[in-house]
Amino acid sequence: MKPTSIDLRERIVAAYDAGEGTRQQIAARFKVSLGLVKKLLAQRKSLGTIEPQYQNVGRRPAFDGEDLKKLDTFLRKRADATLMEIQVYFNGCVSCSIQAIANAIKRLGWRYKKNRYEPVSKTEKM
After folding, report:
1. Cα–Cα distances in angstroms (integers) from residue 118 to residues 64, 99, 115, 121, 126, in the given order
2. Which of 7, 36, 86, 108 is deepest in the core (most CB within 10 A)?
3. If we measure between CA atoms, which residue out of 69, 66, 33 comes closest to residue 23?
4. What's the CA gap between 71 and 125, in Å, rounded?
5. Residues 2-16: what's their mean pLDDT?
6. Residue pair 92/67 in contact by the 8 Å Cβ criterion
7. For position 91, what pLDDT does the model report?
8. Which sign, positive or negative, has the C-alpha torsion 63, 66, 69, 75?
């Protein structure tokens, strides 16, 4: 969801400062929630700005910084290693899931390439 534009934020705060109505009336006038009006006024009071504040949400990656470099070096030496083998190799310094390893490999730009499928002849099946 995109943050509310700076222009609209400025108009909301200016209308409140000019005494053009209550917070509820200003919210109705600009077709925003009352919570947004309250948030803008509180943010201006506490931070001195009405600009959008970006949050870092989510978990930190299991592999970052030096560990990511070690993973890249490991993959250069053993490009055919499975995710389980990588997990066992890094067991002492990084505790994470198989999916976290796959995500780190993807961030490094490595791709998983399957071996070519070679069909088995009918005589070999029996």
Report:
1. 38, 28, 9, 9, 17
2. 86
3. 33
4. 40
5. 93
6. no
7. 86
8. negative
